[in-house]
From TrEMBL, chains A, B:
Active site: Y110, D151, H253
Site entry (Interaction with DNA substrate), positions: H253
Stated family: Belongs to the DNA repair enzymes AP/ExoA family.
Cofactor(s) the record lists: Mg(2+); Mn(2+)
Source organism of the structure: Thermovirga lienii (strain ATCC BAA-1197 / DSM 17291 / Cas60314)
Descriptive protein name: Exodeoxyribonuclease III
Pfam families: Exo_endo_phos
Length: 262, 262
DNA sequence: GCGCAGGTGG
DNA sequence: CCACCTGCGC
């Protein structure tokens, strides 16, 4: 089948980022594009844009908050939204799962940020990881071919933030949420991005509020590309398309791209 | 002194229109630019932009509403804001009067829109014309050299709107407000724009809410260029710079430009 | 429809 | 800083 490029991009409103997607997709051949924070209801999702760029697109969003989408050149066998465990919130606007071919699973996530360690949303965030692990247990084994991507709202190691010691009580850097992230690795996922980019300063998010955050490279690596071994073995490269963060009216995130021989 | 170009432009927020002004002023040599609806307090007026474009600039605005400015290549002898009659509102953010040389007066107006025929603002609008006429009586005779420009929020004749019969009860087209406009002509002003452009479809405002208003030319002529006879005799041309209405993120108005041999 | 305001969110 | 919201003005 050849080399496939799979990207994850928190767009911070898909409708406000069409100029960025237009420019990027015109000079970068992406096979599967996973979006988070589309921030729009399905009726107002700009599906026509993706069709014109040669993608099929599947989305589930809500007004102003959350929302995930998968745009794919190849038609998936099926697509489903949410954690499907009967609990609420059901995660429809935070998780989309597609099957490609007959055994390649792609799960695109927008994990709750959590707000504050003592906020109910942080509890929900930790629960989200629990529920995801149960989803994996129920549907797969570590030998399954699974790619998990998305904004996981966790910087898993000290290398993944700029000032780790200032951030020990941050909802994206607290021990508990790092433990939740690591439980994914323990379940059977490889951090595919780190396999190819083990160095310092590899961020995917630079806060709008930090002055010259990109030039000073004050950022976070919270957008991830994980895969079970059978897929991770086929990964050939991974990188952050950080140039997009410097374009006009950017998202605060940049895409993370993985190349897989599939 | 040679040919002078004087323009009136309701910018619908000066700070949101700098890209339009940048592009326009780079390829059009304007001597005096009169702005309305600058929508910004003086502390946040982008005076540096006008300085860089070679203008002196004088402005009086308020947060979110109203606001007038005059940008001039030549330094005026003096500038004053408001109707100066001791009544309230004083009109500081709706009228600016400059003297050029020792006898050329320029009055730039943003007349209240009026909201509805039965709204107190409509009464205020008619009063505004009364107060303006008193201002003229007090300071000038019809032999004075005066240019009056601005968004007068009146379409004076059936030719100046698209569907006159639908608009008889509109605050910019009602008989009473047209009477107020005509009282300016009777006082001693010539409609300089109509002197040069007597034809149909000469509009200066196209409502954002009307689908494809510009292409369909569904608009209003409410931005005006008037002058007393001694100045009107020296007018050589007038036109609407309607191309600006088609640029990215335009104002809902286009500039009206007059050329005068002064 | 597109400015503004103030507010929430990350 | 830059998305979103509601509400207002034209």
């Amino acid at each position: 089948m050849g080399m496939k490029k799979i990207a994850t991009f928190n767009v911070n409103s898909v409708r406000s980022r069409l100029h960025i997607l237009e420019r990027w997709l015109n000079d970068t051949n992406i096979d599967i594009l996973c979006l988070q924070e589309t921030k729009t209801e399905d009726a107002t999702f700009p599906s026509e844009f993706f069709h014109q760029k040669g993608f099929q697109v599947f989305y589930c969003g809500e007004k102003a908050y959350n929302g995930v989408a998968v745009a794919s050149k190849e038609k998936p066998a099926w697509v489903s939204f949410g954690l499907g465990d009967g609990l609420l919130p059901d995660g429809r606007t935070r998780m989309v799962h597609c099957l490609f071919g007959d055994d390649l699973h792609l799960i695109n996530l927008y994990v709750p940020q959590g707000k504050a360690l003592d906020h109910p949303d942080y509890e929900m965030k930790l629960k989200f990881f629990d529920r995801l692990l149960k989803y994996l247990d129920k549907n797969f084994t570590p030998e399954s071919k699974i790619i998990v991507v998305g904004d996981l709202n966790v910087a898993p190691t000290d290398m993944d933030v700029t000032n780790p010691d200032n951030k020990r009580n941050h909802v994206c850097f607290h021990e508990d949420v790092k433990k939740a992230f690591n439980s994914l690795l323990e379940w059977g996922f490889v951090d595919v991005f780190r396999k190819h980019r083990p160095g310092e300063g590899e961020f995917s998010f630079w806060d709008y509020r930090v002055k010259n955050a990109l030039e000073r490279n004050i950022g976070w690596r919270i957008d991830h590309l994980l895969a079970t071994k059978p897929v991770a073995e086929r990964s050939k490269d991974a990188y952050v398309a950080r140039e997009l963060r410097a374009w006009e009216k950017p998202s605060d995130h940049a895409p993370v791209v993985g190349k897989f021989e599939l």
